Amino acid sequence: MPAVAAGAPGLDSPAVTTRPTIYDVARAAGVAPSTVSRALGRPARVSAHTAELVRRVATELGYSRQARTASADRSSMVVALVMSDITNPHSAEIVRGAEQEAAEGGYTMLLCDTRESVTREADVLRRVLPVVDGVVLASSRLTDDEVAAVAATRPTVVLNRSAVSVPSIALDDARAALLVVEHLHGLGHRTIAYVGGPRNSPVEAERRAGVEQAADALGVGLVGLAAAGPTLRAGAGLADDVAGAGVSAVVAYNDLLAIGLLQALRRNGTRVPEDIGVVGFDNIPLGRLVSPQLTSVGAPLQAMGASAMRNLLQQLASTGRATVRSARLPVRLVVRQSTGPAPAHGSRRR
């Protein structure tokens, strides 16, 4: 089996090899690994000069295209997008952006679903890493050390969370939280709730911290509530807790939680936004279909997917070295009908 990096989740230590790789050929020839793959496998797709250059360099280095099938460093022209939950509506735009970028770069993209499970994520990576050139980890539940171990095995980009040692594409969650709390404060809300997401989610930690900091800065009281998961059902299950928390507005970790909560509150007789305002994150299309329409933090999801994949392909073109800096993408608050002025004291319907 191809070698993988020590410390990657649930994986064995790597075997040491000095066999020349496609990245060595690319570096010596001054071309991208994908160009080497085409020159040796489909020479008609590159110029005659480039094909001859690559063949000569490969021969000088002792690189064998036939032998590469047993090497973890071979170029398969396949990359992977590993997502925490492909059923979440916000995933579709991310997938579209990433796949389009991969296709334009000549790569096939594998889509893997880890179902919000760190164990399944480790298992997926154990099977995928030996056969892909690089990987994008979207909303990964791995620890920073585990992500770094994956990056030591294959070029890696982290999507929708920040990372210290690995290139990442993330939203400005601190800015997003400030926009939400400022919006509610401006409407007169002085005590709000935050409904959190998965405990092992770095995005959840950043959003919670952002809401806490913004609330503290603006003098807004904050009640913390935990959901069973980032789903419609989990949001609905918190309706009674929210209604009894003495708050006039609630901020949810994502739109699915917010929508489930909004619908359950209304079924229980709580008016939205007259009694309790509701805000979500992600601005998924479903938020425009519920009544009242959901106020939410919007993000350029397709651009996020494209940016992450572009970052990965740039690494591959640089012989696998992470030379591209991380980026935080801008957010905006999309105000709709689920938020409004805070109810006057004593006017809330019971």
Radius of gyration: 24 Å
CATH class (first level) name of the largest domain: Alpha Beta
- Low confidence ranges: 1-9, 11-18, 67-73
Total number of strands: 12
> Quaternary status of these chains?
single chain
Helix count equals 12
Question: What amount of the residues lies in strands?
Answer: 15-25%
In percent, how helical is the residue content?
25-40%
Q: What is the strand arrangement across the widest sheet?
A: 2-1-3-4-5-11
| Structural domain tally | 3
Shape, principal axes of CA atoms: elongated
CATH topology of the largest domain: Rossmann fold
From the N-terminal CA to the C-terminal CA, the straight-line distance is 64 Å
Mind telling me which CATH architecture of the largest domain this is? Answer: 3-Layer(aba) Sandwich
Question: By CATH's scheme, which homologous superfamily of the largest domain applies?
Answer: Response regulator
Task: Average the pLDDT over all residues and give the rounded result.
Answer: 87
Largest sheet: 6 strands, parallel
Topology:
Blueprint: H1 22-29, H2 33-41, H3 48-61, E1 78-83, H4 91-104, E2 108-113, H5 118-128, E3 134-138, H6 144-153, E4 156-159, E5 168-171, H7 173-186, E6 191-196, H8 202-218, E7 221-226, H9 232-236, H10 239-243, E8 249-252, H11 255-267, E9 277-281, E10 295-298, H12 301-317, E11 327-329, E12 332-334
